[in-house]
Amino acid sequence: MESSPLELPVDAVRRITAELKCHPTDERVALRLDEEDKLKHFRDCFYIPKMRDLPSIDPSLVNKDENAIYLLGNSLGLQPKMVRTYLEEELEKWAKMGAYGHDVGKRPWIIGDESIVGLMKDIVGAHEKEIVLMNALTVNLHLLLLSFFKPTPRRHKILLESKSFPSDHYAIESQIRLHGLDVEKSMRMIKPRQGEETLRMEDILKVIEEEGDSIAVILFSGVQFYTGQFFDIPAITKAGQAKGCFVGFDLAHAVGNVELHLHDWGVDFACWCSYKYLNSGAGGLAGAFVHEKHAHTIKPALVGWFGHELSTRFKMDNKLQLIPGANGFRISNPPILLVCPLHASLELFQQATMTALRRKSILLTGYLEYMLKQYHSKENTGNKEPLVNIITPSRVEDRGCQLTLTFSVSRKGVFEELEKRGVVCDKREPDGIRVAPVPLYNSFHDVYKFVRLLTAILDSTEASQVF
């Protein structure tokens, strides 16, 4: 069945306001959008924190029995309710049968990661044999770079955005030093133009074209952690490979947020965490992708027992039979207690589908943008202070669900007042507050309440004194 044409957020708001004969900022618009949301039932599959359990609330400003306004899925996703059940199943199995748990049950421990890897296929757009679930993100990044970064005197650079996540920055620095190279010469960072927050694609492609012959690896974010910019992964991949570079991506803020097609795009390698949009809990089991075209040409630099073919693994003859492709990069047995939370979340993604989630995300984040502009943009307030600036790209193709906000007043004061009122978002240096309405469990009414609270904070004389 073909899906209906995508309704843009501004068109949805106009349609509903016409039907209800109300102002676009009316609460009834948010409630109607929630009524029309075909994915709204997934909210009931998660635990939503209560106001009373948040450490920073002011009890005089909130109803302690209400749900918090949780807009921080870009940092830590909420807990799926089935996590406890799946963990208890494995704890029960361990208690009752000990080591036999390696071979029986819906998640035999010896293949715990493999038992759920198929649920990742549609989320990252890859074949099952191209995906592996293991370790943590930066560990996987190091393992991949050890195999894909093979510098020569002529081709020795790694290209990345200047404001990459610190962990990526440190990993790249250390990989360059590991090869005895000068970081200043081999670490090529692209900065936004003067006075701009995000990178222009034409500038990225220009650097690749002009310097590609000296670049060994291009490593970009899928979605930039600070600005929320969704990079054009297929264009960067095509341009880099045309110059002979390997092209990889850190998908920490992209996986489970935007639609990905890693196989079809021809990406060489990628890695991601799972505790943000994939809701696997703090320090959850991470993932990696190696395109099948490299299955027999790119081998892991470091190997372990779980990279050995399962059919002969227990011969214990110390004669490595390396699994081709991504699975050969596995080193140790999967941590089954980390498999369980990820399993619970991935099942929800399979039921919802990334296509449907992305459609809702465009509408949900677009509604947030629309409401912010109604109250706090230069165009609608006539430059009246205080103003809210959205540094995340406005084109839906260039962003996921996160919007990064800056203010014409002190960000610290705004953030503290939001915390007191039970809004869970985060601040990032130098001056941004990141807000991420997640389509699996956030509602349009969450967005409405957030904007109303933010507006009250910015407009109140009491709050202005703390700015």
Task: Record keyword descriptors for this entry.
Aspartate Aminotransferase, domain 1, alpha/beta, 11% strand, PyrdxlP-dep_Trfase_major, EC 3.7.1.3, 7-stranded mixed sheet, 2 domains, 38% helix, hydrolase, Aspartate Aminotransferase, domain 2, Kynureninase
Secondary-structure blueprint of this entry?
Elements: H1 9-20, H2 27-36, E1 69-70, H3 82-97, H4 114-117, H5 121-124, E2 131-133, H6 137-148, E3 157-161, H7 166-178, H8 183-186, E4 187-190, H9 201-211, E5 215-221, H10 233-242, E6 246-250, H11 262-265, E7 269-272, E8 287-290, H12 310-313, H13 336-352, H14 354-376, H15 378-381, E9 388-390, E10 403-407, H16 411-420, E11 423-424, E12 426-428, E13 432-435, H17 444-459, H18 461-464
Parallel strand pairs: 1-11, 3-4, 3-5, 5-6, 6-7
Antiparallel strand pairs: 2-8, 7-8, 9-10, 10-13, 12-13
The H-level CATH homologous superfamily of the largest domain, spelled out, is Type I PLP-dependent aspartate aminotransferase-like (Major domain)
Number of DSSP-assigned strands: 13
- CATH architectural arrangement of the largest domain: 3-Layer(aba) Sandwich
Q: Look up the CATH topology of the largest domain.
A: Aspartate Aminotransferase, domain 2
Structural class: alpha/beta
Spans of 5+ residues with little confidence (pLDDT < 50)? none
Distance between the termini: 53 Å
The average pLDDT is 95
Overall, the morphology is globular
| CATH secondary-structure class of the largest domain | Alpha Beta
Strand content: 5-15%
Number of domains: 2
- Strand order within the widest beta sheet: 2-8-7-6-5-3-4
Report helical residue fraction: 25-40%
Radius of gyration: 23 Å
